[in-house]
Amino acid sequence: MAGEIVKTEGTVLRIVPWSRTSHVVTWLTPDHGPVTTLVKGAVRPKSAFLGQYDLFYTCDLLYYARTSGGLHAIREVVPTSMREGLRGRWRETALAGYAADLVRELAPSGQEAREWHVFLSGFLDDLAVHGAGARCRMLIRLEMSLLRLAGLTPNFSGMDPAAEWTAFSIDRGRCGDGVRTVRLSPGTVAALRGVPGRGDDDAVRFLGLFLAYHLDRPADVRRSLVALLSGS
Question: Taking the domain 1-132, which CATH number applies?
C-alpha cells in the first residue's frame, strides 16, 4: 500500500524493463540513498514520463513511498540536468555507466548518501563537458573518491618520496608487506592523489587490484572498460 508522498532529487543509476510499457528505475537521492521506483506506462505514446528521465539525468521527483518494502510508485518526474554531452560519446557513457554501477552497489541509505549524491552529480557534469582526453584520470578520480566515501582510502603515509618504490600491502591497505604486496613509485602515488603525470597507467592498474580485493569486483569487466577508455 502506498504511503506518504516523498519529494526529493534523484540521479538515474539504472533503468530496466518491467513490462512492455513500464520501467523500474533506480535513483541516487541525497536524502534516502538508492531508491527504486516503478514508472507505469513509461513508454506509452501519451505518457507524461516520456523524455522526462534517462540514464544519468538528475531530476526532481515525487513518489509514493511504500512502508513495507517493494517498489515505490512514481508520481512526477522533472529533469533538472540532462547531461547531453554524454549522448553519442560512447566511451564517456561507458565510464558514466561504471560510475553508476559502483554507486548503486556502495552508496548507503539515508542522509549519509548526501555526499555520494554531490560527488556523483559533479563527476557526471565534468564527464559530460571535459571527459574526452582525460578518461583514465577521470577513472582514477572516480575510484579514489568512492573508496574515500566508503571508508576504504589507501593509506600512503609511509611512502618514502626519495625511494624508487615502496612496498604496499593491498590486503592491509597501507605501506608495508602483506599477503598481497605491490611496489608503488612516488609518481604512481601522485597520480592516485590527482596530480597529472606519468603515473596514470600504474595508478589505474593499482586501483584494479585494490578494488578487486576489497570490493570483490569482477576484474574482467573493469579490464574491458580500461581498454575502452585507453583507445583513441
Answer: 2.40.50.140
